[in-house]
Design brief:
Blueprint lengths: L7 H9 L9 E6 L2 H10 L1 H4 L8 H19 L8 E9 L2 E9 L5 E10 L8 H10 L11 H16 L7 E10 L4 E9 L6 E7 L6 H7 L10 H12 L4 E7 L10 E9 L3 E10 L3 E13 L4 E10 L2 E9 L8 E13 L2 E16 L2 E16 L2 E20 L8 E11 L9 E14 L3 E14 L29 E2 L5 E2 L3 E14 L2 E13 L8 E12 L2 E10 L4 E8 L4
Parallel strand pairs: 1-3, 4-6, 7-9
Antiparallel strand pairs: 2-3, 5-6, 8-9, 10-11, 11-12, 12-13, 13-14, 14-15, 15-16, 16-17, 17-18, 18-19, 19-20, 20-23, 21-22, 23-24, 24-25, 25-26, 26-27
């Protein structure tokens, strides 16, 4: 390829140029495809030295001569091994003008990949499946463009697939990338040595004083003798951190290839205070001012039972909750029981309920399932109807899956939730009913600064006597988390006095676009539609439109919306804190 050389003419130009006491003034133009030009502008020495007081004619000459070779060095890791580089230098009124024109040529393509695995893993029953999976997810396949960073990343990814499951001492015994610049081809070879198979040993606990050791063992995700698993260790640590028992949890396993059997698991704990009182103040546009007091004892009867007393006071809702939660059993189920006294005055409907509830829940990965049995007694009053009393023994199941990149401020992922419940008149209930409800939220990034959020929910109650169904098990819509542009739970069955009662059917949907403005602030535009009714024939979809602001606060997304309700032609302000789902 052409190389720059300082001809007598160029030397004469340099000799004839005036000297600058504060360094030589020069300008550099890089002509190359956009991504490569950016790479060169940020890394070439001749640009990094620009404006330095120590650059004189001799230094500029050296930098100019060295630049083409430096360009080759920078392009090689990107898969360009035969670039054509033309350079020029000339003196103008504004100083020295240097230009480098780069034609990178054809990017090297992967022509062959040879991945080999040896060691104790070949004796595992699932060896062929793991090897096939490794080849399937290999990120640098035949036909792909070769870059040094992707080659290094592919090797690390293959090694990580071995390390996380039973073979934490795995290594890369050999790797080679054979490059043929003339053919712009790359042939890749990597050999992995799995090392010995590791198994878990005994659990060694430090820092446990107030709580029984059996409490820790209930959260354990592994048993002695099982194959080593990074995911099981992470799940164990996360499960303990998500309890109120500990303020710090650290799990460590020594990795020594000469001692792979029965490796002890070291658990270091810092216990949290047993008693805790939390006082909160807040405000939202749905329920108004809010004050709350929560008292918790995390070690009832010195067995790790969690006792909680919770008092919440809001303009439209007041509640008292006392309950106890037990540590998970050997199957991973958490059992809990509580008593709730709640009063609501929403949309002209005054409701008081008393509920005794027992439930069990279990979480596996991203899915949580809860089964509950509750007995509810309540009465409901409106201005134009006599007091309605009801009772129900309700059996229900709730299923949810949260699969997002960041639970506090999601930008990609899916949230799913459904619930099925019902009661029978023959079992201590005022009426027969079955209730089904489901909700979905989808987050998808649009470019670097945009975010699309789609949300929808639907539900139905089947019953011969809607008035005898507990109010919490009927449907109303409207408000910050529902159809914006309407007051909280004002979309439902209107009575003669203007009160809004719950209906038997519900459907809402929302589309929202957010765009980053500055820092953690985003602007939003949205459209909501939906409502609640007694049946689908009388269902009316109310529409709301608006704009808003979003702030990714440390405790979750803060949303402020100004929305227009098309049905009653009014503008309303909503704000909320938390994931919009």
């Amino acid at each position: 390829m052409p190389r720059p050389s300082f001809t007598p003419r160029l030397l004469a130009l340099l000799m004839a140029a005036p000297a600058f006491a504060a360094g030589l003034d020069y300008h550099v133009d890089i002509n190359a495809p956009a991504p490569l030009a950016e790479l060169l502008r940020h890394n070439l020495g001749i640009l990094r030295w620009k404006g330095n007081d120590y650059i004189d004619r001799e230094q500029l000459e050296r930098l100019y001569e060295a630049t083409p070779k430096e360009i080759e060095t920078l392009l090689a890791p990107q898969g360009y091994f035969q670039p054509k580089i033309e350079s020029s230098i000339k003196l103008e009124r504004k100083g020295w003008q240097l230009q480098f024109t780069v034609e990178p040529g054809e990017q090297a393509m992967v022509h062959d990949v040879d991945v080999r695995v040896e060691g104790a893993i070949v004796n595992e029953p699932d060896f062929r499946a793991r090897w096939a999976e490794l080849l399937e997810v290999w990120p640098l396949p035949i036909g792909g463009n070769f870059t040094q960073s992707e080659w290094s990343g592919a090797k690390r990814r293959g090694l990580q697939a071995l390390i996380i499951d039973r073979f934490p001492a795995a290594t890369i015994s050999q790797s080679r990338a054979e490059i043929d610049p003339a053919k712009a081809s790359a042939e890749l070879t990597v050999n992995y040595d799995s090392g010995p198979r590791f198994t878990f040993g005994e659990l060694q606990v430090k820092g446990l004083q107030k709580y029984p050791r059996t409490l820790i063992e209930r959260f354990s995700t592994f048993k002695a003798g099982e194959g080593y698993s990074q995911q099981k260790l992470l799940d164990f640590q996360t499960a303990l951190q998500n309890t109120p028992y500990f303020s710090s949890v650290f799990v460590d396993v020594p990795i020594d290839a000469s001692k792979p059997d029965g490796v002890p698991v070291s658990l270091e704990l810092v216990e949290a205070p047993r008693y805790k009182t939390e006082v909160g103040l807040g405000f939202d546009t749905d329920k108004g001012p809010r004050a709350s007091v929560v008292y918790r004892d995390s070690n009832l009867r010195r067995r790790g039972w969690i006792g909680t007393v919770d008092l919440k006071l809001q303009r439209r809702e007041q509640s008292f909750n006392a309950g106890v939660e037990f540590p998970p059993n050997s199957d991973g189920y958490r059992y809990a029981g509580n008593f709730v006294l709640k009063h609501e005055d929403v949309s002209g409907v005054n409701t008081t309920t008393q509920t005794v509830k027992v439930q069990r829940s279990r979480q596996k990965g991203k899915i949580e399932i809860t089964q509950a049995l509750q007995y509810t007694m309540g009465h409901e009053k409106t201005e134009d109807k006599p007091e309605q009393r009801n009772k129900a023994l309700i059996l229900s199941q709730d299923w949810s899956r949260i699969s997002v990149d960041n639970p506090a401020d999601p930008r990609r992922g899916l949230l799913l939730n459904w619930q099925l419940g019902g009661a029978a008149k023959t079992l201590f209930s005022s009426t027969n009913f079955v209730r089904a409800w489901g909700r979905v939220g989808w987050y998808h990034p649009l470019g670097e600064d945009g975010l699309l959020l789609l949300r929808g929910e639907a539900g139905q109650v089947v019953s011969d006597d809607t008035a005898a169904v507990p109010n919490d098990w009927l449907f109303r819509a409207g408000g910050a988390g529902s159809v914006r542009g309407y007051d909280y739970q004002t979309l439902g069955l209107k009575t003669a006095s203007g009160a809004v009662e719950g209906g038997r059917v519900l459907a809402t949907a929302s589309a929202e676009y957010q765009h980053k403005i500055v820092g953690k602030w985003r602007a939003a535009v949205f459209a909501d539609v939906g409502g609640a009714a007694n049946d689908w024939l009388s269902f009316k979809a109310h529409k709301g439109y608006g704009v808003g602001a979003r702030w990714a606060s440390p405790v979750g997304p803060f949303a402020l919306d100004v929305a227009y309700g098309a049905t009653d032609k009014k503008v309303r302000v909503h704000f909320s804190l938390g994931v919009g789902f």
